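ESCALATION

Customer reports they have been waiting on this structure for their group meeting. Please prioritize. Original submission:
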Amino acid sequence: MGRTLYIIYTHFQLFSKSNIPPPQKNALLNERNKQASTLILSMRSAGAKWADIVNPLNDNGFRTRRECNFDITAVKRLYSRYEEINV
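Update from on-call: job pushed to the front of the queue and completed.
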């Protein structure tokens, strides 16, 4: 329990002191986005094109924060958000 509270507090400190607007904060803190970003970042670093990333995300059951399928625009946005803070 203590570790979980520490992690939440650390995330709160990180984002409360930053200049990231609230919608982007919500996107970065969303658990589904964190999981999808792991796949996106690893595939992109391996040289995959945006279109090559979309299908594995959708085929493996990943959904956007609003429960939609990923498209190229959503993948690019999520990638850029996580790439900026190097999560």
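Sent to customer with the following note: The CA atoms of residues 39 and 66 lie 19 Å apart.
Escalation resolved.
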